[in-house]
Amino acid sequence: MTSDALAIRRAELTDDGRWACRAANAHGHVTLRLHLSLRAHLTIHAQPHTQFTILKGDKEFAK
């Protein structure tokens, strides 16, 4: 045995549903049935607030 975990890499929303995992060896087999529920990962892309200063003579204006 190299691992005691089942990994589903790059799971997508379409992978949602019923799954079965079966392991077998010379001593028998075992099956695990499960329901996989996936939710969309929320990603927020926010741009930084732009700030600049206008210099006019000896006056400074911030925007």
From TrEMBL:
This is Uncharacterized protein.
